[in-house]
Input
Amino acid sequence: MSKIFIDIAISLDGFMAADNRSPKNPMGDNGPAIHNWMFVQKAFWETHSMDNRGEKDDADGQLIRETFARTGAWMMGKRMFEEGEASWPEGLFRAPVYVLTHEKREPWVQKDNTTFYFINDGFEGALAKAKAAAGNKDVRISGGADCIRQALNSGYVDELTLHIAPLIHSSGLRPFDGVDKTKLTFIPTKTVHSPMTTHITYTVSPNS
Amino acid sequence: MSKIFIDIAISLDGFMAADNRSPKNPMGDNGPAIHNWMFVQKAFWETHSMDNRGEKDDADGQLIRETFARTGAWMMGKRMFEEGEASWPEGLFRAPVYVLTHEKREPWVQKDNTTFYFINDGFEGALAKAKAAAGNKDVRISGGADCIRQALNSGYVDELTLHIAPLIHSSGLRPFDGVDKTKLTFIPTKTVHSPMTTHITYTVSPNS
Output
């Protein structure tokens, strides 16, 4: 059964992104530092078909490969897309990407099965398309914080993985802000220790 | 060498305490739920010399015993003390407790080596007294959020343990709010998985 999962990095104080976000400064000031654990892994550059700049290949890399392999479609918010559009190389996602936006725009077809679809009928409409595209694989909700909030409040998320980076942002965007605290049950199912981050996976289910 | 350590529970969205805190409602609405993992452990009731209401004795309990055994003195803020004073049984801490306050008050001597000292000369003054009292054991900074912030910003903290509870508070007090993001380096050293919480320990050191 295909799953809907969230897989995001956050700072020790719970921020997905820092202040001063823009296409020229994606994720804000020092924002990408929450992904430092990924950038050192060969698996990160391999899965995204980029020249390999990673020096490590350990449990963190294995996690990157597994997460990438299970992903049959991606969903993301408009601001995450716009911040990334300026700098992402073509073919990065290797699966269809559904972008939540009010903008009308034709699909942007890239190499390696990466096509961005711009969806104007809200979270649930985009999710239905992503699920259909994913087939037996899973749908990954990528971000940003507003998209994560919508996903959790929708009640459709099956699984949440947090990569907690050991740094403080002090300000920015937190994914749980605005999530209905009465609606969901989280159960930690797996923890993986790393000197650069901590990976925690939860099953998520709506309260009856 | 004696260490200064922080050991606190937080919600998935980073709160140590919820809204509507008072001595009649310690930690605020549903606040104590972040400690549910402790309340089911025999070790929690044993170490605090209370009638045993725990049904479990596993890795979480072992962690409670180790943390209690290493603690030679406690530090806490005035509001944490005032919220607890109304309901804590006597002799709970089994070591001297240094309370940061502006109130002048004689030490409150209880059984089992628990004595509350009310310290009026700030965080560093209280820390010096707690270190002297702890001897070869460690000093535990208990909370609340404002006391944790002061401790981290002081640069004296050696170790931080977070127990991340799988629930959302949505509002309340966050321990990292107001912590200087440039001042400290955190390195995750140990992670312990539990179905009721996730324990992460970091070494903490001031940046040079």
